[in-house]
Fold this sequence. Notes:
Elements: E1 15-19, H1 24-39, E2 43-49, H2 50-60, E3 69-71, E4 74-81, H3 95-119, E5 126-129, H4 135-142, E6 147-151, H5 155-165, H6 205-217, E7 223-226, H7 230-240, E8 246-248, H8 274-278, E9 285-289, H9 298-310, E10 315-318, H10 331-335, E11 339-342, H11 347-351, E12 356-361, H12 365-374, E13 378-380, H13 387-397, E14 401-403, H14 410-421, H15 423-444, H16 449-468
Parallel strand pairs: 1-2, 1-5, 2-4, 5-6, 6-7, 7-8, 9-10, 9-12, 10-11, 12-13, 13-14
Antiparallel strand pairs: 3-4
Helix pairs in contact: 9-14, 12-15, 14-15
EC number: 2.4.1.-
InterPro entries: UDP_glucos_trans, UDP_glycos_trans_CS
Amino acid sequence: MGIAIEGVTDGSIPHVLMVSFAGQGHLNPLLRFAKRIAAKGLLVTLCSTDDIGYRISSSTGDSALGVPKPVGRGFIRFEFFSDGLPVDDPGRKDLDVLMPAIGSTGPPALVDLIRRQADAGFPVSCIVNNPFLPWALDVAADMGIPGGVLWIQSCAVFTTYYSYYHSLAEFPTEDNPDVTVNLPGLPPMKPEELPTFLLPSSRFKSARKVILEQFGNVSKASWVFANSFEKLERETIDAISHRLQVIPVGPLVEPDDKSQSSIRGDLFKVADCMYWLDAQAPSSVVYVSVGSVVVLSEEEMSELAWGLRKCSRPFLWVVRRDTQALLPEGFIEEAGDRGLVVEWSPQDLVLAHPAVACFVTHCGWNSTLEALTAGVPVVTYPQWGDQVPDSKFLVEVYGVGVRLRAPATRDEVERCVEAVTQGEGAEAIKARAAEWKEAAARAVEEGGSSDRHIQSFVDEIKKRASCSGDIAAV
Ligand code: UDP
């Protein structure tokens, strides 16, 4: 497919290709990174698999994803490639099905896609991929194109996996399951505070394998970016940087005023809940979401529902279509005007709304950063993977919330919501949340720590592109 770029008048633009794994938690930070880079004057093509193209088009109504859209001084467009499975194959939810399929189809498809960019007059100057697709770095290296990686979880979790992969510390084993892990730049981590995939008892062996594979070839990356910021994880970043330089470029959170762009990568159709929020009192609403993957049990859904009903506050609850049947019968009718249940929300906008008082979250890293950036107190309800350490950091290190222990009960839901919204303890939590909001804004503003890192990367790409003659004549 040819690329036409209307409005490019200076006759040249360096081109960065970003490759995302098919998941909302992967796509959002990479797209936000793409916007910040594009805004500084580059063309960014964000590519992922065909099913993702289909889902973004269906949910956003944008059928021209391949057409470059202006973002600041640059442009963004999408491209898609096959993961080897039919677009509507439900089998791709299973990593044991998806990973071998994409592992064999993805690399040649990516090579082909890169060649087509050059043929169209826009050779790729750099490739950036996110976790679960380590082969993208191999493709970049084989084609002589510099490669980077965007780590989409915390630097604390990066350090933990990296140290496990390279056997740099003692971790729990079947014979010795109670080991506390001590890593430089991190507080001691008890087994129940580690990413659960590393526990010998974890049932998700495929997830562990897929995550750890990243660390096999990360040394091929010219840049390892992280969705974090210096003030948030300075000690951890400094400690790991003795082995590998990690460049914090976050929080990659919207709304981002600088990019002035409405391009979104929602995989679910976003419900209009802003009108409802506008009608609520300031700092009154409990917002609840467990992200794009977590499925709570019927019992937990029921306790959460009646717990929300017990809190004398309005609530906005994201219950994805695949989990709506788990809601207690009659709950939505019973909640009436006081509660709004939607299949998907514009979460970044919701958290930034003044009506929101607190966020009951599963602690995915994007949700964690979005809460910190918005200065919203949290009730944490982690399920697995990095959500568990993220919850620890939110509560014990960043001091912006309390943990709801699993399995949730309605009384505990009510108690936790009260703990972060009312009384002296809540005031201290709100004050810390406001400080993190300020720190996050400082990091991404012009000249802030993350903005400087992004600017250096863009300058380097522009320099390399002009030296190698990669810049296209339009
Ligand atoms: N999200 C959203 N609307 C919702 C729920 C989630 O836009 O109703 C977004 C959220 O803002 C975040 C992403 O989906 O950027 C979820 O990523 P996260 O890392 O928090 O969790 P995951 O879905 O990967 O478990």
